[in-house]
Amino acid sequence: ILYSYFRSSCSWRVRIALALKGISYDLVPVNLVKDGGQQFSAEFKALNPMQQVPALKIDGITLSQSLAIIHYLEETRPNPRLLPQDPKKRAQVRMIADHIVSGIQPLQNLSILKQMGDKKSEWAQNCIASGFQALEQILQHTAGHYCVGDEVSMADLCLAPQVANAERFKVDMGPYPTITRINKALLELEAFKVSHPSRQPDTPTELRA
């Protein structure tokens, strides 16, 4: 059972992983805006004390934090692999994933933006642009068809949702040709299509693909 919100980039990472590995699941929507935020309910807090999505019930345990979930899926259901066998490439994948998951996404998370008031769009744009400037440089050294070489990896699962956030906040993507190229290739893959925010059970009608 996946507890998810259609627009949550962290949830989208996990939906991509589940789709790539062919793992079927039931989706329970948790609306982060409605009713003051359904993640703050006592029921959901018991499931994930951090009151964030995603959360995944699997194999008799409940996991939160997207990368912890993806690592668990990788270790228990290794095909297709999301971490390269080569240690150097594996380290590069983790580096890029951490760059996005720690260095960009939390700074423009809903809880932070609420505190920014009228400046939330400007704040999000600046945080994403700063992170993308560094990421573009890194990818120029690591990328093949995707973030690291020619295999889809955990890094790519983090990249596509972050680009979607950038587009939502109207970040100028002109300075980031490598990021743009990789993202375009990823969005052509079926696992990225079926897991896309525009195609979820809880996607509002006006935002559906």
TrEMBL record:
PROSITE patterns to which the protein is assigned, alphabetical: GST_CTER (PS50405), GST_NTER (PS50404)
Domain GST C-terminal, residue spans: 86-205
Annotated GO CC locations: mitochondrion
Cofactor entry: glutathione
Domain spans labelled GST N-terminal: 1-81
The keyword Isomerase belongs to this UniProt entry's keyword annotation: yes
Catalyzed reaction equations: RX + glutathione = an S-substituted glutathione + a halide anion + H(+); 4-maleylacetoacetate = 4-fumarylacetoacetate
Family as reported in the entry's similarity comment: Belongs to the GST superfamily. Zeta family.
Protein name according to UniProt: Maleylacetoacetate isomerase
Gene source species: Calyptomena viridis
Lineage, broadest ranks: Eukaryota, Metazoa, Chordata, Craniata, Vertebrata
